[in-house]
Amino acid sequence: MTTSGPASFEQQFTTLSLTQNSPESIVPPTDSFWKDIDIYCKCDCITPTIIPKDIPPLELPVISYLELTHQCNNSCLGCWYGQSNRGTSRRKILTAHQWEIIFSKLAGPIQRLQITGGEPTLHPEFAEIINLIEQLAIPYVIFTNALWSDPPRLMTFLEQKKHFNGFLISLHGANAPTHEAFTGQPGSFETTIQNIQLATQIGFSVFTSTVLFQDNFTQLLKIQGLAESLGARYSVYNRFVGSATEPGVLNKTDLKQAIDQIEMMRLAGMTTRFGNCIPQCFYPSSAAGCFAGSAFISIDASGNVKPCNHAFIHCGNLLTDSLFEVWDSANMQRWRNLVPAQCQDCAEFSNCHGGCRAVGCYGTSGQDTLIVENEVHKTSRNPKCTINH
């Protein structure tokens, strides 16, 4: 956390919260703003607790997600990576040398990395890729299911890494039946629990990531308690991003109940937060908007650049294109323009940014399915205040 120079994110938040988020109090974000936000988020939403109003796309992205491999040893609800691995075909993935070419284009603008997949540790050259990232001196976290082939060896390897900032580990239930109903992998709960505990005992920072679905939304307090008992620093809860027809996806009534539970835990002082955006017109909450296409990108296992890893929109390939070319591409601009007309004049737009664009890509409306038609807020709320429904 920066302590001198331009105001840090915490300092900016303190100023904004004291002034009730009035427009004149909002200072355009400086480079230190992006250095101070965290990236412990299930999806590709960079969601700080409060968002300065009307942030335009930066000249170049400052945060990148690296999907090292399509391979995964889970088969999670709605995730085509794990499900596609049940077949016989395997798509080619970038080698460490090819990632080195991409890293040479990321060096400079990129200030934060999240290493993900699939399951990133399954990449055959995982260690080599991590060593290359270390040479960049860019802080990074690893988003993982913790089903590691050799946990002690992985811990020993990462203990030596100066720029490794910790794990974001999937935890989808308070017990084996619930967790494994989501992961589709028998035995995954016990292994995940053991390795969360192993990582925290060594001293690594661990955030847990939970996707809300039909089997777990009534046990969020138990999931929170389990995560805290294992030594996790924070628990991140995410709405499902994908087709609404997937089995187990929460209906709107149950999702609102889950939001209430998360808000009650947060206001009670528990270390919990939302990981992706929820439109404020759907239900008021402390969830914040996402910076996909405005401040960060996702790079898949073939080098294709996307605004976020939930979107099927390719904006170029960093093996052949420059970072500027993909950031300024026509498809990236189309993504940025996917803002519902009603949201543009809403006072909550600076908080939720018009909902999740990726969700809109799965349906026919082209917008977040949670957006309430003709519901436009005339005044803004303070995202840190107690939620009144």
Explain how this protein is built.
The protein has a nine-stranded mixed β-sheet with strand order 7-6-5-4-3-2-1-8-9, covered by helices on one side. Helix 4 packs parallel to helix 5. 33% of the residues lie in helices and 11% in strands. The N terminus and C terminus are likely disordered. The protein has 389 residues and is an alpha/beta fold.
Can you summarize this structure?
With 389 residues, this protein is an alpha/beta fold.
What profile does the largest beta sheet have?
9 strands, mixed
**Roughly how many Å is the radius of gyration?**
20 Å
Low-confidence stretches: 1-53, 382-389
For the largest sheet, list the strands in their spatial order: 7-6-5-4-3-2-1-8-9
Helix content: 25-40%
Question: What characteristic shape results from the CA principal axes?
Answer: globular
* Beta strand count: 9
Mean model confidence by pLDDT: 82
User: What is the ordering of alpha helices and beta strands?
Assistant: HHEHHEHEHEHHEHEHEEEHHHHH
Strand content: 5-15%
What structural class should be given to the helix and strand makeup? alpha/beta
Beginning-to-end CA distance, first to last residue: 34 Å
Number of helices: 15
